[in-house]
Amino acid sequence: MQYDPIKRQLGNLFNRSTFLRRTFYHLLDLLLLRSWHVRKALRRFRQDHPVANFQILDAGSGFGQYCYYLSKLLPGAKILGVDVKQEQMDDCNLFFQKIGKAENVSFKVADLTQYKSAGSYLLILSVDVMEHILEDEQVFANFSASLQSGGMLLISTPSDQGGSDTDHHEEAGVHGFIEEHVRDGYNKEELTAKLLKAGFSKVEVAYTYGKYGSAAWKLSMKYPIQLLGISRIFYLLLPFYYLVLFPFCALLNYLDVNRNNESGTGLLVTAIK
């Protein structure tokens, strides 16, 4: 199904005030398992860099939720969010101006296959982006060129073990639950090799969305999004749906984040230049 229209509808709904947008960010942090994994990795990064007088790139920043989190986690850092959608970047700039964070957080339109800023960043974050870009090796090379020596790249992306829900759609000739993906997921060894080729010296790849996380994703994201794709009336029912199921989903997320998954439909990657 087309996932982007649903995201736009949700974004428009929560973009009506700064309170609603903050609420939207908190809901994404609570519901999205990838956010649990990413925020845990970012907290570890902060432990090694307590003085945040450096620059961060959120490569494919979307709604800006990770820029918002980073602005609180590392308040001294300069954060740039880039994405290909002008309207979304304008909305993000306006929101961060309204909440008084525009001095440290800004957004602009950029194509990751072309964007690089030599040695500018100590941290580059790329969450659910690479599965949308065909020229991934060029982007990895740009990331490496843009990082300082010792800088870290943090990636969250689907794995090749059904990360785009391909096991349910192959017979129908559909690439996956999210049709905007240009690949159905990465193999761990393939992704590691591409990052080493791009100039990274140390690459660690861990599975996310194991058996607990995959169940949480279906309950907290897949089924609700499918319902929203059927009719907008389900927007009215969502609060009651999550009121009942959220505690169970949160427990499943916690179990996924705090165990070593032997397999999974997602990957969390840390690469050091």
Summarize the structure.
This protein is α/β, with parallel strands linked by helices and 273 residues long. It has helices spanning 3-14, 18-31, 33-48, 65-73, 86-98, 136-146, 188-197, 211-230, 234-257; strands at 55-59, 78-83, 105-109, 121-127, 147-158, 202-208, 266-272.
Give unreliable regions as ranges: 166-177
Using the 3D structure, state the CATH architecture.
3-Layer(aba) Sandwich
**Terminal-residue CA separation:** 37 Å
Number of strands: 7
Morphology: globular
> What strand line-up does the widest sheet have?
3-2-1-4-5-7-6
Q: Find the CATH superfamily.
A: Vaccinia Virus protein VP39
Element-by-element helix/strand order: HHHEHEHEEHEHEHHE
Helix count from the secondary structure assignment: 9
Query: CATH topology, what is it called?
Result: Rossmann fold
Protein described:
With 273 residues, this protein is α/β, with parallel strands linked by helices. It has a single domain (3-208, 261-272), classed as Vaccinia Virus protein VP39 (Rossmann fold, 3-Layer(aba) Sandwich), CATH 3.40.50.150. Helix content is 47%, strand content 18%. A 7-stranded mixed β-sheet has the order 3-2-1-4-5-7-6, with helices on both faces. Strand 1, helix 4 and strand 2 form a beta-alpha-beta unit. The chain is globular, with a radius of gyration of 18 Å. It starts with a helix and ends with a strand. Mean pLDDT is 88; it is low at 166-177.
